[in-house]
């Protein structure tokens, strides 16, 4: 089993015929993802990458049975694309677009909150279930099938964590890049919960960064489960100065609990095995699974 996406997912690409959409759709197809078409208003009825192009998401759902969408739409129109997909009955929306205006995301998140849809992103690398489906921009060759789940705010560190896990002789069930914008569809806790409830995930890597309280909320949830699955954690931005945005729009220290040191302390207090460097993720996970590691 996997979470969010698998070999049965029927994926469409919003912004299909643009340069970014075309490039990454081709990569996803080559990986083996079941891309059933794409959406570009005004180009419906044509084909692109040997797949049908639809004018609307509703048409793609009706004619191709699409249930997952990945969005490569410019920031000014991306929130509308999210709402259109949710309206059409798409179950999982992966918004890759970076720089969507905050007011637009407030409206989009409010619009979809009572709909049966999971939004990943925006400003994220996507979701991958190795060997089954890649719905995102991650380098697929890094990810090998296994039983370790990954939840990460950072795209690059998602790939690094996967590489560490694979080099340690383990593999990945599903990796979820939640995105680094201030307003995202699926916070850390919600993504961790998906993997906690997945019977084919044995342990989780949780990667956060400075700014916000996502990691603290997730850590408290993990403790509330009785730490039923071991979690190895890392926080990026340990040298970031207060008040300065580092990389992601959401990576800015706004208070005492927003710093990397504070988040690492909170995670340790809640039973998470925290590492000081991403280079330690793989070896720590092996020790945790063997019962040798502590969270000190």
From TrEMBL:
Q: Name one GO biological process term.
A: tricarboxylic acid cycle
Q: Which UniProt keywords apply?
A: Ligase, Nucleotide-binding, Tricarboxylic acid cycle
**A Gene Ontology term for the protein's cellular component:** succinate-CoA ligase complex (ADP-forming)
Listed EC numbers: 6.2.1.5
Identify the residues that bind substrate. Answer: 159
Enzyme category, top tier: ligase
Task: List positions binding CoA.
Answer: 17-20, 43, 96-98
Q: Which GO terms describe its molecular function?
A: nucleotide binding; succinate-CoA ligase (ADP-forming) activity; succinate-CoA ligase (GDP-forming) activity
Residue positions of the active site:
248
Q: In which pathway does it act?
A: Carbohydrate metabolism; tricarboxylic acid cycle; succinate from succinyl-CoA (ligase route): step 1/1
Q: Which residues form the CoA-binding domain?
A: 4-100
Q: Extract the Pfam families matched here.
A: CoA_binding, Ligase_CoA
Reaction(s) catalysed by this chain, per the record, are:
GTP + succinate + CoA = succinyl-CoA + GDP + phosphate; succinate + ATP + CoA = succinyl-CoA + ADP + phosphate
Subunit: Heterotetramer of two alpha and two beta subunits.
Q: So what does this one do? A: Succinyl-CoA synthetase functions in the citric acid cycle (TCA), coupling the hydrolysis of succinyl-CoA to the synthesis of either ATP or GTP and thus represents the only step of substrate-level phosphorylation in the TCA. The alpha subunit of the enzyme binds the substrates coenzyme A and phosphate, while succinate binding and nucleotide specificity is provided by the beta subunit.
Regarding protein family, the annotation reads: Belongs to the succinate/malate CoA ligase alpha subunit family.
The name this protein goes by in its record: Succinate--CoA ligase [ADP-forming] subunit alpha
